[in-house]
Every structure is written in structure tokens, then in C-alpha cells.
Amino acid sequence: MRKLVYYVASTLDGFIAAPDGSPDFLRLDADVAAHLAANWSQTLPTFTHPQFGIDEPAGRFDALVMGRATYDPALKIGVTSPYAHLKQYVFSRTLPPAAEPEVEIVSTDPVEFVRELKRRPGRDIWLCGGGQLAGQLLPEVDELIIKLNPYVIGSGIPLADRGFDPRRFDLVGTRPFDSGVVILHYARPTEVG
Length: 193
Hints:
Layout: E1 4-11, E2 15-17, H1 30-39, H2 49-52, E3 61-67, H3 68-76, E4 87-91, E5 103-106, H4 110-119, E6 124-129, H5 131-137, E7 143-149, E8 157-158, E9 170-176, E10 182-187
Parallel strand pairs: 1-6, 1-7, 3-4, 3-6, 4-5
Antiparallel strand pairs: 2-8, 7-10, 9-10
């Protein structure tokens, strides 16, 4: 079965964006950018591939899910398919159907939709953001990969916006960078018994 992987940048205090939804305060230092281009090129917007020297993005994903607030910045700059190299599912109850074949607007329950999507044949699914969608989908997340940035911002969009509901993940890998960013890779614990 396909896995749902929440791959996201976060601050030390657990925020993925400023209160207005902007992640602009998070720098992309050269060491991290090189690593992302080499190892996570699918998670870079298609229109940025030339500046990273990416001809054909490689990786484990063939689809992504995102919330409306995560999709909006691309729309504001006139990009209607920010990850054209992937099938994109955007959760919104207000957006009209997308004109691009690789973008599908989904107005149904995210949990049920993702459960069904995980059962379909294909590669893994990237949970791109945002915090509200991640909060709803947290029980379905199989892996959590956090690009932990050396910032404390005090408030903003939380990593997973949901009520108190502790979920344990096991640490399976770390990758520190000279710039202070650490990529933390967690997996849902294997159920025993």
C-alpha cells in the first residue's frame, strides 16, 4: 500500500509558516538547497527546476495532497499547477474545478479520500501542507520528514492543527547541515501483536 508522507519545513517551536501563512522567513541555504535538488527534487515546484538544474525530478512520489492555503500562493503568482510533475489533489470547498489535468480539486472528506488514494496503485503520496489538513490527516501519516529550521517564531501555522491527541512516531534518520537545518525522518511505529 502507498504511504502518506508529511514532508514539511518547520521552526523549532513547531510552526510551518508565519501567522499570515507566509514561509518567507525560512531561508533556503545553499547546503540544504543542494541536498533538496539531489534527493527531494519532486518537492520543489516545477517552475523552479531550471534554477536548481533539475531536468527530470526523481523521487518516491507520484502524487501530493495540499490544502487551499498551501495552493493559494501559487495561484497569486499565476501558477495553476505548481507541481506539474505530480498529480495534485487540492482540498477546497470553494475552488472551481481545475483546468489542468494534473490538478484535482477535492471537496470531500480528506481522511476518506486519502484512505482510498492510498489503496490505489502508485507510488507514495506527499502531504505538502498545510497545518489544518495535516491535523486532519495525522492518523493517516505513515512518515513524517521535518526540515527543522533554527528559528523560534512564537506563533504561526502549526505543524498539525488539531486538538490534543498524542501520536508517537519513531526516529529513523537525521541529516544535519552546516546552516543549522536538520532533516528529521520519523515513521509510524510498527504495530506489534
